[in-house]
Amino acid sequence: MSQYLILCVDDERDVLDSVVDDLQGFADHFEIEAAESVTEARDVIHDMAAEGTQLALILCDHIMPGELGVDFLIELANQPQTASARKILLTGQAGLEDTVSAVNHASLHYYLAKPWQKDTLVSVVTDQLTSYMVAHEPICFLGLASSIRRVSWKRLTKISGIWAVNSVYLFLLPRIGSEIGKKA
Question: What is the pTM of this model?
Fold first, then answer.
């Protein structure tokens, strides 16, 4: 089991299934969970946290029965255990006021409109997860970047199986250099 969670929240099962299918390339490195409501999403976050899995990224619809996605993202931004999670609003129905509220109060990291393109979704999620990992495990990333300068890619892939670096870092490797450059 991974120690990082990607959570997809949408009340439309077909949309939710499509998002999860589009994110299957991340499944070897991240837990991917789906929730059809904010209440179910809270339960998933609670259960995964009890197992030691942190919420790294949430993709959330806005218009859902019972509670709005933006309000849920604001709630997550105000809780210490979920505040640092990357937040993506994936919706076709958020108006300007709701979007501004999400940016100003929920630390919204990205807005994706429905319908989305798989390549765009995967690219955005990769960028957001890279930012999350660099912020939360900077020592590992800096060590990895330093090692990459000294070791060829071929050698790195040979030793990666025994190297004490989480496979997440190697998975996100193409984005690491640019993120470390931003931090310097």
Answer: 0.74
